[in-house]
Amino acid sequence: MGNFAANEGLSVFVILVWLGINAYLFVQFYMNFLTERWFYTRVLLGDALSWARAPAACLNFNCMLILLPVCRNLLSFLRGSIQCCSRTAARQLDRNITFHKLVAYMIAFHTAVHIIAHLFNFEWFMGAQLYRNSSSLPFVLSQIGTGDNASYLNPIRTDQTNPTIVMFTTIAGLTGVVITLALILIITSSMEVIRRSYFEVFWYTHHLFIIFFIGLVFHGFGRIVRGQTATSLLENKPSQCADQFESWGKNGTFCPKPEFAGNPPMTWKWVVGPMILYVCERLVRFYRSQQKVVITKVVMHPSKTLELQMKRKGFRMEVGQYVFMQCPCVSQLEWHPFTLTSAPEEDHFSVHIRIVGDWTQGLYEACGGDKNETQEAWKLPKYVLECREMAIDGPFGTASEDVFGYEVVMLVGAGIGVTPFASVLKSVWYKHIQENQNVFTKKIYFYWLCPETQAFEWFADLLQSLEGQMTEKGMVDFLSYNIYLTRWKETEAAHFRVHHEAENDPITGLKQKTLYGKPNWDNEFTTIGTKHPEKKVGVFLCGPTQLADVLEKQCLSHSEAGVKFIFNKENF
């Protein structure tokens, strides 16, 4: 229970508060439209009125929140500000994309309810006009304002009106269709399979949020849903006058015809703050992207992994941070996130890019992907010089920034997910070269899971350097690392070892032998918990969601001897 509170307590609290506010707004606005002011509107629409307005209030609230988790500069500022006070609170900011998705799902849900309720509303509006009976209150209400159209209740003015035309010729109808289509495209293109296989589709359709918010702001300006005015309520109280509708406005009656008006638009009041904040965010990104960045070295690693070493004036980073990159000669619009693999102590910053899509393939070719040797800046060919000035936005903080805040650390990287830990391990190496005595971390357990042997090659040099450095300084126990080749079976590995007997591992060149298959995480956590009782162990993962679920469960279930495993996942 203690581990659950440490890992998930604040997240659960935030989610419960968010759900509570949604529930409160729904109930409150549902009840608001059961009041006397909306009595005549309910005569036409019934309960569909409240079912349309309640989700609209929740939509306003969630649309206010949806942009905040993607304000990267704001989150980095908040992370740095609160990290010194509460590491737990700072860790919640690393789940910004998860919260962004939850809010998006809530928007989709309330949008569906809102649309369905309004479809029923239009049916009732049309039905009131078609049932032409002066002894029917809905018909009488529908005829109010027919002459001057100043105080109507029913937006469908005649029985000849086509509801489809109303949908596409009114402000509310047209903007409703536009924002619904934009939302459908945004959500469907955000599916995992599309985002990973067709990132450009995800990237471009996500920018429909601009159209979505413009439509959202103007959606309420049509004031289609109308209620009785305050002045009219004083003269025509539904409790007294509803049954006398046939004599409304006639001589000798004390009940004049009711007057109606729509609520003033409110959505803009909810979203204008976040929209201004997001505009400022984009201006900051634009300013930083205009600062000159120069590629100083291009390294082509095996298995189509590209390393770019770059410099930018005033660039400062921490371990595990990431940047967004744009290469104008590949695309003028696309920005892609990459983890920094350099250490803060180095005089440059670097990224390792696995070639898996059109954009990365274009960058690979532009940087001379057919050449296997390292290329210094002054030796780059002419077509590469055109790409030497790249746009960089960042760096931005991640969970790995906290790595040196734990005395015992577990680093788990899967495939190219090892990149943030390259920065961590390099920084460790530099700190010990410089004999930095302020390193709080006393023990690092490093796990690297790769499917094929080629993936090890670009990172092996760093591990060999670390291994030699630790041995030379008598710190062999500081770093324990286990490298797993996940797609090899033990029988294949045994056959391989028989033909490659050597002191060092034949695949990585390290003294530590490569392991085969997948780790037994239960045994690993039990062993570490036994060795470090009464300690907080920081568990950092950069890898797939399935592995994150496994490690998070292990963190929650292993609390022997008072040890606490604090789970952190890279999420950008």
TrEMBL record:
GO terms for cellular component: monoatomic ion channel complex; NADPH oxidase complex. Its main location: membrane. Residues 282-402 form the FAD-binding FR-type domain. InterPro entries: Cyt_b245_heavy_chain, FAD-bd_8, FAD-bd_FR_type, Fe3_Rdtase_TM_dom, Fe_red_NAD-bd_6, FNR_nucleotide-bd, RBOH/FRE, Riboflavin_synthase-like_b-brl. The chain crosses the membrane at residues 12-31, 51-71, 102-120, 165-189, 201-221. It comes from the Eukaryota. Coiled coil: none annotated. Pfam families: FAD_binding_8, Ferric_reduct, NAD_binding_6. It is found in: Cell membrane. The keyword Zinc does not apply. One of its GO terms (molecular function) is superoxide-generating NAD(P)H oxidase activity. Keywords: Cell membrane, Electron transport, FAD, Flavoprotein, Glycoprotein, Heme, Ion channel, Ion transport, Iron, Isopeptide bond, Membrane, Metal-binding, NADP, Oxidoreductase, Phosphoprotein, Transmembrane, Transmembrane helix, Transport, Ubl conjugation, Voltage-gated channel. Gene3D superfamilies: Nucleotide-binding domain of ferredoxin-NADP reductase (FNR) module (3.40.50.80), Translation factors (2.40.30.10). Its cofactor is FAD. It is a multi-pass membrane protein. GO terms for biological process: defense response; monoatomic ion transmembrane transport; superoxide anion generation. It catalyses: NADPH + 2 O2 = 2 superoxide + NADP(+) + H(+). Catalytic subunit of the phagocyte NADPH oxidase complex that mediates the transfer of electrons from cytosolic NADPH to O2 to produce the superoxide anion (O2(-)). In the activated complex, electrons are first transferred from NADPH to flavin adenine dinucleotide (FAD) and subsequently transferred via two heme molecules to molecular oxygen, producing superoxide through an outer-sphere reaction. PANTHER family: CYTOCHROME B-245 HEAVY CHAIN, NADPH OXIDASE. This is NADPH oxidase 2. The lineage of its organism: Eukaryota, Metazoa, Chordata, Craniata, Vertebrata.
